[in-house]
Design goal:
This is Recombinase. The chain has a domain of 71 residues. Helices cover 56% and strands 16% of the residues. It has nine helices and ten strands. Helix 5 crosses helix 7. Bound molecules: zinc ion. Zinc ion binds next to helix 3. The site of zinc ion has 8 residues, from helix 3.
């Protein structure tokens, strides 16, 4: 777990499992070798190091090497930021990254509608879209939301309200099932009491089997409901903290390496629908993704 502390405002921070970002911070923190970082400079610190400088250097070398090769491997081969999240609205299918080589060896990247590719160009009004353009647009939209706290808060509250409604509906269903279950269990006990010992009463046995089936089915549904509402509850975010997370998305975007940019965007956005006719783009956020971003980007240690 990461270090825990309480902010001046009384908010609890840290105490979360290490993620890639917090682990990276830990491994690259020069405080552990008795130094001090001021902006881009590293100075001798007042404190003694607790990590062998040789080990520290080896770790840095390995991080640098893996960071570079990881970049090209993790990021897909066309370097497509929106792979897996961009969809063609008209065909309700995904748009996949592709590229062509134009004259002069300049690579032209685009996303193409899978249906248009399979069933013919004239079947789809969207067809394809230049990759650079739509990527820049989407990133700019997300950053703009991050810059506008009020807008971020509103969007998150709207999404939270719909999650709360779904949780409430599940709770109502759960209550109803529990009431029925109690009733059926009483009836079951009743039937068992009435069953003559050693004798087979086909009517009573039929009722018994029917009750047992109903109870089994509804207990199954009950556990589904609990899993679903647990899952939904986990996606709930605090609007203020989520707005803060989106703000840090804007602030940190330029400092992220391409691989991290792709990861962060994929984590944050569930889908982007592109309508080639009207050229409209609809971005749907992942509530759970906002939460991950929150813990990823806000896992900073206090001053
Ligand atoms: Zn299409």
């Amino acid at each position: 777990m990461t270090k825990q502390w309480t902010t001046k405002k009384g908010t609890h921070r840290g105490g979360k499992p290490f993620n890639k970002t917090s682990l990276h911070r830990l491994l690259t923190n020069v405080t552990y070798i008795g130094k001090l970082r001021y902006k881009d400079e590293v100075h001798e610190g007042e404190q003694d190091g607790i990590v062998d400088p040789d080990v520290f250097e080896k770790v840095q070398a390995r991080l640098n090497r893996n960071g570079r090769s990881g970049g090209s491997e993790v990021r897909n081969k066309h370097g497509a930021l929106l792979k897996g999240i961009l969809r063609c609205k008209a065909c309700d299918c995904s748009m996949t990254p592709s590229h062509s080589t134009k004259a002069g060896n300049k690579r032209y990247r685009y996303y193409v509608c899978l249906q248009a590719q399979k069933r013919g160009w004239d079947k789809c009004p969207t067809k394809s879209v230049p990759a650079g353009e739509i990527e820049r647009f989407v990133v700019e939209q997300v950053r703009a939301i991050g810059r506008d706290r009020l807008l971020a808060r509103e969007s998150i509250e709207k999404a939270s309200a719909s999650v709360r409604e779904q949780i409430a509906a599940l709770a109502t269903e759960e209550l109803l099932i529990q009431r029925n279950l109690a009733q059926w269990q009483n009836q079951l006990a009743d039937v068992i009491r009435k069953l003559p010992a050693g004798d087979e009463d086909s009517v009573l046995l039929g009722i018994l089997a029917d009750l047992q089936d109903r109870i089994r089915e509804n207990e199954k549904r009950l556990s589904e409901i609990r899993i679903d509402s647990d899952g939904l509850r986990k996606t709930m975010v605090d609007p203020d903290e989520a707005a803060e997370a989106l703000a840090s998305f804007d602030e940190l975007w330029d400092t992220l390496v391409p691989r991290e940019q792709a990861e962060t965007l994929q984590m944050l956005i569930r889908q982007i629908e592109y309508d080639g006719m009207s050229e409209r783009i609809a971005i749907t956020f992942h509530m759970a993704g906002i939460k991950s971003i929150e813990s990823r980007l806000l896992a900073e240690t206090p001053e």
